[in-house]
Amino acid sequence: MAEELKSIPEPPKEVIVRVKRYDPDKNKTWWQEYKIPTYRGMTVLDALLWIKEHLDPTLSMRYSCRMGVCGSCGMLINGVPRLACQTQVGAVATPENPVITVEPLPNFPVVRDLITDFSGFFEKHKSIKPYIIRKDPKEVDEAPREFLMKPEELEEIYQYTLCIMCGLCYAACPVAASDPEYLGPQALTQAYRFIADVRDEGAEERIVVVDTEHGCHRCHFAASCSAVCPKEVDPAAAIQRLRRIVFLRRLGLWKKEKGSPVAGPLEKPLREVKAEYPKHNLLPGVDPEQQAKEPVTIDFREEWLKE
Ligand code: SF4
Ligand code: SF4
Ligand code: FES
Fold first, then answer.
1. What are the pocket residues of ligand 3 if the criterion is a CB atom closer than 6 Å to any ligand atom?
2. Residue located nearest, by CA, to atom 4 of ligand 2
3. Which of 43, 49, 66 to mutate to test the pocket of ligand 3 (most atoms within 8 A of CB)?
4. What is the mean pLDDT of residues 167-184?
5. Run of H or E residues at 112
6. Are strands 262-263 and 115-116 parallel, antiparallel or unpaired?
7. Mean pLDDT score of the chain, rounded to an integer?
8. Which is nearest to 242 in space by CA: 277, 288, 218, 207?
9. What is the number of the ligand 2 atom nearest to the C-alpha of 232?
10. What is the C-alpha to C-alpha distance for residues 200 and 10, in angstroms, rounded to an integer?
11. Tens of pLDDT along 103-141?
C-alpha cells in the first residue's frame, strides 16, 4: 500500500474542481468551478470538503467512513465512477491539466448536487434475497445453530462477498443506462454469491428473479462493471457463472445439492463475554465482578463531575 501511494504523483499546487450541481427546488443544473490549494495525500473527497468548509457550504455530497468501506461516496470523477475517498487528487490532476470534473453517478436519480438516490438499487439487491435460505426454516429460526462450510467452499465465493454496495458497477453499466429495470451487476453478482454458497438452499427462488428479460441474459459482458469495482469483486465473471447455472437448469442439467449440514444446537453460547476492565478506567462505585452478576446502578455525585 505504501509503495502504491509513493507511485501516485504529487498533486499540482492548485487545482480547479469543476462540479456538476443540481438544485431540486429550482430544478436547475449547472457547472460550478472552485480553485483550491492541495497537499500531498489529498483525496477528491478532501477537496470537496475543503470547498464546503472554505468556499461554499451549500455544496452537497454523501460520505461516511472516508476509508473505502461504507460505499457512500461514489461519484463520477473525470468521467469514471470512483470512490471520492479513495481517489487521490494527484492521480486525476496534473500540472498540465489541473482540472478535476466531478459529477453524480450516472444511472441513478440525482437528489442534490453529488447525492444520488439508491432506493431502486437497494430494491434490486433485496429482490434476489441476499441471505441464506434453508428449506427447513427451523434450522434458521431455532438459534443458535452453525451452518458448516469448508475453507475451500468459502474461497469459491469469497471474492463476491466483498461488495460494499457502492453502485459504481451499476453506474458504469451500459445496459443499466438503457434499461432501468435491468437488475444490474451488483444484484446479479449477489444472486450468484448466494446460489453458489454451499450453505444455501434458495437457488430456485433466486433463479425466477434473474432468469427474465431484465435479468442475467441482458448482460453484454463488456465488463465495464468489473473495471470500476473498487473491491475487485468482478461482477462480469459472476454474471457469466450465473448464466451458466441458469442455462444448465433450463436444460435440466443443474440441480443444487442439498445445502451443507447444520451443526446441532450449541451447548454453550456462541461467545462468552469475559471483560477485564482496566481499574483506572472504572468510575468510582463500579465493581466489575458485581456487575457481571447483576446490573449496577451508579450513584453519580456532584463532586465527581467537578474533578
Ligand atoms: S458486463 Fe454486464 S453487467 Fe457488467 S457493465 Fe457490461 S453489461 Fe453491465
Ligand atoms: S460489485 Fe463492486 S462496484 Fe459493484 S456495488 Fe459491489 S463493490 Fe461496488
Ligand atoms: S466515504 Fe465510505 S467509501 Fe468513501
1. 63-66, 68-73, 83, 85
2. 169
3. 66
4. 98
5. strand 110-112
6. unpaired
7. 90
8. 207
9. 2
10. 48
11. 999 999 999 999 999 999 999 999 999 999 999 888 887
